[in-house]
Amino acid sequence: MSGSVQVTQKQQQLLQLHQQLEEKQHFESSYYLSTRSSVSKQAFSSHKTSSHRRKVSVKTAKGQEVVKLSPLPKRAKRTYLAMDKDKEVIGYVIPVFRANHDVVRGLMEAQEEDVAEEGINYVAMRNLFVREARESVDVKVEKKTRTKHVRESAERLQFDRTMEEWSEFRKKMHPDRLTHPPEFIVKPRGQTAWEGNTVRLHCTVAGWPKPRIAWYKNNVLIDAKAHPEKYTAESIYNMHSLEIKNCDFLDTAQYYVSALNVKGEASSAATVVVKRFQDGTEEGPFDPKPHGFCPEHGVTFETSIIDKFEVAFGREGETLSLGCTVIIYPTVKKYQPDVVWYRNSTPLKPSKWVHTHWSGERATLTLTHLNKEDEGMYTLRVNTKSGFDTYSAYVFVRDADVEVEGVPVAPLDVRCHDANKDYVVVTWKQPAVEGSSPILGYYIDRCEVGNHHWAQCNDAPVKYARFPVTGLVEGRSYVFRVRAFNKAGVSRPSRVSEPVVAMDPSDRARLRAGPLAPWTGVIKFTEEEPTVGVVPGEPADVVVTEATKSYVVLAWKPPEQRGHEGVMYYIEKCIQGTDTWQRVNSGMPVKSPRFAVFDLAEGKSYNFRVRCCNSAGVGEPSVPTGEIIVGDKLDLPSAPGSPVATRNTDTSVVVTWAASKDVKHLVGYYIETSVVGTDVWMPCNNKPVKQTRFVCHGLTTGSNYVFRVKAVNAAGYSQNSSNSDAVVVLAAISVPASPTNVTLLEAVKDYMVLGWTAPTNNGGADIRGYFVDYRTVKGSVYGKWHEMNEKALTTTSFKAENLKENVFYQFQVRAMNMAGVSNPSVPSVGFECKEWTITIPGPPVGLHVLEVRDTSVVVLWEPPVFDGRSPVNGYYLDIKEASAGEAGWKAVHEKTNKKKFMKVTGLVAGTSYVFRVRAQNLVGVGNPSANVGPILAQTRPGTKDIYVDVDDNGVISMVFECSEMKEGSHFVWSKNYQEITDTSRLTIVTEGGKSRAIFNSLSLEDLGTFSCMVTNTDGVSSSYTLTEEALLRLLDLSHEHKFPVIPFKNEMAMELLEKGRVRFWAQLENFTSACQVEYVFNDVIIEQGKKYTMKFDKTTGLVELFMDSLEVTDEGTFTFNLVDGKAKGTTSLVLIGDEFRELQRKSEFERAEWVRKQGPHFVEYLGFTVTSACDVLLKCKIGNIKPETEIIWSKDCIEIAEDDEGAEKIEKKDSELTFNIGKISKQDAGIYEVFLRDERGKDKSAFNLTEAGYQAVMNELFRVIANSSCDIQIHSTEHGIILSSNVTYYDENLRVGWLHKDAKIAASERVKSGVTGEQLWLKINEPTEKDKGKYTMDIFDGKDGVKRVLDLSGKAWEEAFEEFQRLKAAAIAERNRARVVGGLPDVVAIQEGKSLNLTGNVWGEPTPEVWWVKNDKELVSDERYKLKFEHGKFASITIAAVTTADSGKYALMVKNKYGKEAGEFTVSVYNPEEEGKEEKKD
């Protein structure tokens, strides 16, 4: 169009591009920027929309058309370039930063240094870009031809493409682009290097704001500044490196680099392996290494770990402590090693379950509350500047006792995974013991942190060891626990998990990191327009991440189109083969892109899809997942291979097996063991192990075990493997230790006799021989070692021949067993081959000890090889404590010991001793032998002594048992410590770990000390000394066993039964099922029949004989004869004479009683009782009563009818009849009878309540009264002291006596006793000091009397006497107090002018003072008031002519030393004339 004016397209596009870049380069709040992908999509669509804005032509004032841009569309992305009404760029607006000011201020201070460089670059680039934009918006008007317009259009298209490429480049490279978490562009790579080299780890990290970089070694932060000699860390732009200098083996580790900014955290790992120049296998991280020189301190630290903890066994809930003593040499002031504890190679951190302590010498680890999670290999590692040392031992944690037999034990290792807003996945490990039946499933409990209320998460038990817990409140923290369930019940809960927050990971990271946008230097708050709602799009990539029989877990990606607000999700399911979709969570949409679907039918196929929703509505569904069959995707593991068990120690076995094949997600293996011959399987480990080798500890030495293994994963347990071959728990055989104490026993010109001590440890097998090596010594020059014997020696001495005279030789000895040859002993000193000329004997040889106990030990030796000039005639045994020096030696005995053994007693338990022996001949005492020891005086656990046994056949034997038998071990019996080779006296029988020495014919020849030792053990031995006294006792016991007697628990006895039957019985104590009984009467065997009934209960040993009645012919002797194998027993009972007749009478009586009881009868005959209220009751109990049974009471043969006065006293309650006499008197005496009768029979009972019967009732009444008396009470009066006691009821016939100081009190005027109502009292008038003492009230109770005692002395007397004096004084004062006793009226009315005369009677001792008052003012006697007091009794007042002024209140006042009183009266004076006038007025 000619003459038209346009804004050039190039300028317009440049402005649009500027807007797009600015809105992409500046930061929006977290509410709008939920994901980077959605922002990019929206930015691109906004750019397209801006590019197609329509043109509108308007005319200017000059008539020219100007093309103006239309307003932005409603759905366009808002720009952050501030414009005026003409769309001119006038400024730059920073959007609202939604964050707390304190958080912003903290972020600003923390990142001030990091963002300095980025801020400068950003400001410069922003200003440059805005300036270019401003220049580009200047409007230019020009005319264009069509050709020029076409050419510009082509140029414009090319320019658009260039600008788009430039825009993409700027978006990637601009330092002020949208924030994003750290991302590793180049990750560090693992390296392997030799010791001494330098290793460098490099990485490149992108992220905004600039991430902070930290390096870690095995999860421990590396402080490069603190260790510049070892590490150098550099960061140049986005390139980061860690340099490890002069690598050694300790630098072998997993190195982590962590990058962190406000958007999140990323990490990467690299493994560094440092190798050594050495042969053989490389050392592990806990293997000790030679300590190197420490230049920092100028020393080489040597570490020794002593007093080590052993393999430990604990039980759940207990507290277990492990500890070692650590010695660091040399000691450097203020230097302490780094002590670290590990469990299964993982460092332990202090917590409420784990406490560590380092005292400077001892390292201690305390597990405060054991759980199965604590089981494992524990390692103590001591790090010094020169290296490190370690020590390890396994800790086993057994299950706590179950509360209900058969229930499973608690699961273990509860962990939380994949925590988000909607659910948390809880996993656990199955326990080793399922209980009496297989585990049917598990219950998961949750508890909100801060309270103690546990809620069960699943209604039905889940079989799978993984469960998503839903229904959590967002933002709250929870802990979880698990319980196993089988047919027997529910187990105890597991240890609780670590707390977990129900929150999405992104929200968790944001909370940890702080604000989501970087600091730009300026914050402006602007009002933003409300976002127009956009319905979200469909989610993507909906997949099933986990499927079991109980649930299915879905996961998906959020939609790309989601608007500026957050989205939530609905999950829908559809059964395969149908078109009906059912919404799973119709009540509440979920916020996280993950969800667990429950309540699915096992075996059915389902499709799943997801819809998004927000305030604008519900979006379209996602693509369905496809057919998903509900069921466990994880199969049970296959059974492991057959285990192989090999010997390890005397309490442990090594078990190896082949791993399960094709197993997924293996949790580990459980190993079980069973003693051969039983079917009881016990777990060896309570925490699954993943390796295929395990050492089973805590086994019984010498027992035979088999083992089996089962694998476990989240789906459950595998089948058990086949059983291993049986293995006996014994220590594995190894080469023996080295011999010791190589000494010279004899020397001649060309030979020398050597001796040595056998190894302390034979390696688990007998020593088969020794090899001797020698070398020559010339000064400090040593020759080569040569063998002296090709054939092994069987003794601990050797004659070295063919030596050169006057030449010095050194010798060393090696021991040999079936496993091989030991290391050589320490070389001896140089011995000169030179003939001895000494005359005393040489040293004894072969010293060794047996029977080590807490307080004793037996020392044995052999004679010296060289006797001297005369034979050896005795020995001396010396002893000293191991810690004492040479001066500590002392002789055990004074006289010579001619035997070659000696038992040393009186040792102190826990102390170590050293022994030596010296030989003596006629010349003197020779040199001591080589020392033996140190020997710790301590009884080994499980040590048993020889005991003597006498069997059922009377055979006498000695028995010794050993639980530490090893392969090749055997028992050696000795007498007087000489091995028994003659079998004429003893027969040795050995079975397993038990040996029996049987005496063929015990006699005095067998007296002596018998001992037994077990070879190939650590000195297992014992002895028994047979004395003459013991021999006789054993012979008697043997005779009893050869000719046994059946023991009776109860000899024959007799008792009467119902109907008069007679029972004879006896009970045996020990017998067998073969025992037989013969019943005899008067030497005649009786049989079962009408008269006799026999019974023998072999379960209780009860022998019984029953007879229905006793007749005259039954007088005689009854006998039980018993035979039990070769044992016999007899018991008898003689019934003759008066004893038989008395028994016969009782039998007849019992039969009559039985007949009586067939009808109505008395169970208890008529008797009496006295109630606590002292009422007398006649009572009886009746039985076998019917409603028609007649019950008749009578007194003195006169029936008490229903209408008689006494009928109301009769009462029947159940089977008890009572007659309530009440308070008894003489009138109640008489004979009372009760009759029972009906058609079955009759019975009668009577009670004679006369004479003796009446007196018995009264005595019982007196007893009740006496026992109802209370303790004596003290009361004081004005006359004296009263002692009293209350009873429930008092009868005039009751005798009561009072005693003072155990002497009866005679009645007098001053001391009286009596009864008032139910109170028994003793009055003491005017008490004196003589009345103090013990008072006794003796109440007759029908027998001896009931005494109540009061000690009226001390404080009791003082208080009572003081109260008496006070009351007496008060009474005297009251009697003698001054008072007005009469004569005065209350009111006196008198006519004016009359004379008033009043007289009052006065009393008081002494005579009181008297005065008168008027209106509280004292009157004085004068002409008007005449006051008189005559005879000390009469006080008068006279007023001659009264006037109205004399009206008022008057009082006669009296007073003496005991008190005062006023006699008050009122005087009213009237005038008759004035009163008449007033009446007239009225």
- Oligomer status: single chain
Q: How many individual β-strands?
A: 104
Low-confidence stretches: 1-11, 21-126, 135-140, 279-283, 513-531
Average predicted local confidence, pLDDT: 81
| Major sheet details | 6 strands, antiparallel
Specify the overall morphology. Answer: extended
Q: Estimate the helix proportion, in percent.
A: 10-25%
Q: Using the CA coordinates, give the radius of gyration.
A: 58 Å
Binned strand content:
35-45%
> How many H/I helical runs?
11
Distance between the termini: 136 Å
| Backbone structural class | mainly beta
Please name the defining characteristics of this protein.
1482 residues; mainly beta; 6-stranded antiparallel beta sheet; 5-stranded mixed beta sheet; 11 helices; extended; disordered N terminus
Detailed description of the structure:
With 1482 residues, the chain is mainly beta. Strands 49, 50, 51, 53, 54 and 55 form a six-stranded antiparallel sheet that branches. The protein is extended and about 155 Å long. The chain starts with 8 loop residues before the first helix and ends with a helix. Helix content is 13%, strand content 41%. It is built from eleven helices and 104 strands. 26% of the residues are buried.
Task: Summarize this entry quickly.
The protein is mainly beta and 1482 residues long. It contains eleven helices and 104 strands. The termini are far apart.
How are the elements arranged and paired?
Elements: H1 9-25, H2 36-51, E1 55-59, E2 65-69, E3 81-83, E4 89-92, H3 101-111, H4 116-136, H5 146-173, E5 180-186, E6 191-194, E7 199-208, E8 212-217, E9 220-221, E10 231-236, E11 239-244, E12 253-261, E13 264-275, E14 302-306, E15 312-315, E16 320-329, E17 338-343, E18 346-347, E19 354-358, E20 362-367, E21 376-384, E22 387-398, E23 412-417, E24 423-429, E25 441-448, E26 455-456, E27 466-470, E28 477-486, E29 489-490, E30 500-501, H6 505-513, E31 540-547, E32 551-557, E33 568-575, E34 582-583, E35 594-598, E36 605-614, E37 617-621, E38 628-629, E39 644-649, E40 652-656, E41 666-675, E42 682-683, E43 693-696, E44 704-713, E45 716-717, E46 727-728, E47 740-747, E48 752-757, E49 769-778, E50 781-782, E51 786-787, E52 797-800, E53 808-817, E54 820-821, E55 831-832, E56 845-850, E57 856-862, E58 874-881, E59 890-891, E60 901-905, E61 912-920, E62 925-928, E63 932-936, E64 947-950, E65 956-961, E66 971-975, E67 978-979, E68 986-991, E69 994-999, E70 1008-1014, E71 1021-1026, H7 1028-1042, E72 1048-1056, E73 1062-1068, ...
